[in-house]
Amino acid sequence: GSDCCFLVFDVTSASSFEGLEKWHKQLFLQIEPGEDGPFPVAVIGNKTDLEKREVSTEQGEEWSRLHKAEYFETSAKAATNVQEVFEWAVRAVLRN
After folding, report:
1. Contact call for residues 38 and 66 (beta carbons, < 8 A)
2. Rounded to the nearest 5°, which phi and psi values hold at 45?
3. In the chain, where are the structural domains located?
4. Do residues 9 and 35 lie in contact, with contact meaning Cβ atoms separated by under 8 Å?
5. DSSP code of 75?
6. CATH architecture of 5-95
7. End-to-end alpha-carbon separation of the chain, Å?
8. How would you write the pLDDT of the chain (96 residues) with one tens digit per residue?
9. What pLDDT score was predicted for residue 63?
10. Cβ atoms within 10 A of the Cβ of 29, count?
11. What is the C-alpha separation between 38 and 59, in angstroms, rounded?
């Protein structure tokens, strides 16, 4: 019954980024994409307010591009780009 999905990882943790593959596969085992277009997925690199980054913006963008997902970087703590993610989700759901 979902209309879109957020896959969130911690940019300071390479292992959380590596987990995206598992979560992405699980997602597509569970959903039944509609005929109106691709199922909207956003990949979100969180904790950009921290300095010890292990996953680059380029890595996140590349993974997202290969998996036909939208990429965002956020800081939930600083509220950076959080609103943009939800605005994207609303637009994506309304399109489908």
Report:
1. no
2. -90, 110
3. 5-95
4. no
5. B
6. 3-Layer(aba) Sandwich (3.40)
7. 13
8. 688 999 999 999 999 999 999 999 998 888 765 555 678 999 999 999 999 999 999 999 999 999 999 999 999 999 999 999 999 999 999 987
9. 98
10. 7
11. 22
